[in-house]
Amino acid sequence: MMNIIYTQLCSLIIYLDITVVLGQPLKVCYGLLGNMCKDSSSCFLSLILGLVITLASVPPEVEARAFFVFGDSLVDNGNNNYLATTARADAPPYGVDYPTHRATGRFSNGFNIPDLISQAIGSEPTLPYLSPELRGEKLLVGANFASAGIGILNDTGIQFLNIIRIRRQLQFFQQYQQRVSALVGSEQAQRLVNQALVLMTLGGNDFVNNYYLVPFSARSRQFALPDYVVYLISEYRKILVSVYELGARRVLVTGTGPLGCVPAERAMRSRNGECAAELQRAAALFNPQLVQMLLELNREIGSDVFISANAYEANMDFVTNPQAYGFVTSQVACCGQGRFNGIGLCTIASNLCPNREIFAFWDPFHPTEKANRVIVSTIVTGSTKYMNPMNLSTIMALDSRV
């Protein structure tokens, strides 16, 4: 009977990958236990106790690929809930189609882009970095540092007051790594970050909530649009270099969507509902320069660290031909008021469409969950029209061989 128990104990030790038992290698585990305890049940119980103590001291293993998210409201999943800011989505009808049917801080009726990428890589959704639930082994899943309203520039989104600007998000990333090091050790923490997938979504607010926020804004007086774009790209480059220096080795960088085609800009700037030309011009200048900057960074590094995700083309597919994707309209937001439901905020008092599946836009600025699924499908399997130099499926296949 005792021999069976010893065998089971050794099997358990081997299964749990405990490489040393009482100072002896695993290969002599059975003999060690037998010699030490013979038929003594009290000795056996002592060994069990020792094993329990040993297991309690072993740091958790990092298994699944971690996922980190930086950016603005397109990818914020609740950080702004913990801040004194007007840029928040923690009240109905936000979240009406989320599994809990409650507002979570996501600027969506349901899942947002990071949620769907997490599903694509086989991971559970990342928690907001400011969430008190992000502790212990949940840290190993990754973290979402994004904050609605922010941009590449520090003065973008100042009207929203207390938001987590991008440099602060990177400081939180450093803090996160210290917390993970305390949990699993510095070597494991570094490996987790190096092997992680990172999503970076910035730029739209630098136009919508800065350059074009008001007529004759400070930035529009300082820069002509082409010069402003060059300035944004140079500042974005510094941010991405910092992300690389902090250990990121696979970074999906989304360009801006068709800024002039969201319901808010159609409502404010068009006569007949057409896309606002000036904001479309801004996106047309910004996105190609972003792609070029990423290619140059990769050449300098000598590796495809930065992957360009063409959000403009991914959005324009359903903006210009909504019926092809099962939408009835890409002009009118599901939730809002005024022209195209594009005026003001989405609140409990807003017009709310009964069927979110037929709307490309959820509120005046953000896609519905269904539209987010279209966007993420191009990230996962899209051609070089959408993903340069490779899509997420290719990244996952390549990285699985390392």
Automatic annotation (TrEMBL):
Listed Gene3D superfamilies: SGNH hydrolase (3.40.50.1110)
GO biological process, one term: lipid catabolic process
PANTHER family according to UniProt: GDSL ESTERASE_LIPASE LTL1 (PTHR45648:SF167), GDSL LIPASE/ACYLHYDROLASE FAMILY PROTEIN (AFU_ORTHOLOGUE AFUA_4G14700) (PTHR45648)
Keywords: Hydrolase, Lipid degradation, Lipid metabolism, Signal
Homology family: Belongs to the 'GDSL' lipolytic enzyme family.
A single GO molecular function term of this UniProt record: hydrolase activity, acting on ester bonds
Protein name: GDSL esterase/lipase LTL1-like
Signal sequence range: 1-23
Protein species of origin: Populus alba x Populus x berolinensis
